[in-house]
Amino acid sequence: MKISKIAIICILGILAIGLGGYMAFKKMTVDAIGWKTYTNSKYGFEINYPSDYTLADTPGVNTGGLNRDQYEATPFPLPLPRIVNFSAKKEAYLDDAGLTIFADTAMGNKNACLKTGEGKDIVQTKEINGNIFYVVSDKVGDAAMGGQRGQFSEYRIVHNNTCYLIESHVSWHIVGYGGYINTGVSDATPEQTKAQQDSISKHTKLLDTLLSTFVFVGSETYQTKNTLKTYRDEKYGFEFMYPDTYTLKQSVIDVGNGSGRTLVVDFDDIRNVSTSLKINAGLYKPSECNVPVNGPSYTKTTVVNGIQFYTGNSGDRGMGMALDQEGYSVVHNGVCYQINLDMGYLRSADGSYAENFDKAKVEEVFKKIMTTFTFVSAKN
User: Fold this and answer.
1) 76 class by beta-carbon count within 10 Å (0-12 exposed, 13-18 middle, 19+ buried)
2) Would you say residue 118 has pLDDT above 90?
3) In this predicted model, which residue has the larger pLDDT, 181 or 21?
4) For residue 179, is pLDDT > 60?
5) Counting Cβ atoms within 10 Å, is residue 94 exposed (0-12), middle (13-18) or buried (19+)?
6) What's the chain's Rg over C-alpha atoms?
7) What is the DSSP letter of 120?
8) 83, 94, 126, 368: which one has the fewest Cβ atoms less than 10 Å from its Cβ?
9) Mapping DSSP to helix (H, G, I), strand (E, B) and coil, where does residue 154 land?
10) Inter-axis angle of helices 19-26 and 359-370, to 10 degrees?
11) What is the tally of helices (H) and strands (E) in the chain?
12) Please, are residues 374 and 33 in contact by the beta-carbon 8 Å criterion?
């Protein structure tokens, strides 16, 4: 990245990420694009769930298996009724997963909510979308005879004089397992084994995302969660979300190998800073996607929202300015996509390149936006 490029960026006046906007966005969940929303007005919560998951919220109807209709265990003096369950559509040895929310206002259950089975205080906590839950178990593995396996999580919180208990599981029967006596010989094909491993990984991630969308109606998190905008590009087949206080600009650029699209997300001003999020689609040939003319070279890999990206970063200083960059690139359906965060700084009064804002927070905002990026069907 050359200094002239920095000057061009500054001349363009690309705006900066406002810290107030960050603090609001920090509490937002990683919304799952295309998911459905379930709202329970009686118990005052909202949660998003995958469109191919089954929802059950009829009192007294047992959904079967691990998705029980009520929670009965010490230290609760009374059973906690199930409010809603979300479960994957199980097929043979695949996709046995679900998340269940129990809630009760009974005084005895509320008093026991944050206790262990032995009556001791639960000490481990976990932040979930701005709320502090108490952890009974967090992806704890379990095994049983006959090749049954699973991992289980249980979180509790008392809110508005109500005990909430969230329970999730991913369970499976080892494919190819011979029965109650393990002979050590599996009759599973490599394809079956891989399909089961992929299913376990898929639903573990889906349940993590589902849990991250849980929010109490009327809370600050709930208010900010509902101020997101969605940008959907029909031609290049992608979608992402960003706070509605930010401005998105779009341009179509003619390049040597055809036309492409550049999106720029502008944010609130911060003195001496010029920061932007840029998404380039179709500007470079697939063979050139990881070797840009300017900016970071994409040499490492990471998975975001189920997409494997190449990542990289770079920096430059000079002529009273500085620039740091972070970038992601991927080739999808023959199209090169590059997503970059450019952070420019002016020289401070003492001659140094002082970063007069919290760079780590800005980078986290970038990563939050990245987690909403997904590919959709393109329309030519």
Assistant:
1) buried
2) yes
3) 181
4) no
5) buried
6) 24
7) P
8) 126
9) strand
10) 50
11) 6, 21
12) yes
Tell me: the pLDDT tens digits for 280-296?
A: 888 888 888 887 655 56
CA–CA distance, 308 with 305 (Å, rounded to integer):
8
**Token couple for 67:** 């998705």
- DSSP notation for 198-231: HHHHHHHHHHHHHHHT-EETTSHHHHHHTTEEEE
| Verdict on whether the full-model pTM lies above 0.70 | no
Taking the C-alpha atoms of residue 92 and residue 185, their distance in angstroms, rounded to an integer, is 20
15 neighbors 353 (Cβ within 8 angstroms):
no
Helix or strand or coil: residue 40? strand
* Token pair in block for residue 24: 């609001």
Quick one: which of 341, 292, 266, 253 has its CA closest to 12?
266
More confident residue, 365 or 19: 365
Helix H or strand E segment including 19: helix 19-26
Q: Report which residue type is found at 51.
A: S
Q: How far, in Å, are 111, 219, 234, 260 from residue 328 at the CA level?
A: 48, 33, 21, 17
Q: 87 with 98: CB under 8 angstroms? A: yes
Question: What pLDDT digit, counting tens, does each position of 11-66 carry?
Answer: 233 323 333 333 333 333 334 556 888 999 889 999 989 888 889 887 655 454 45
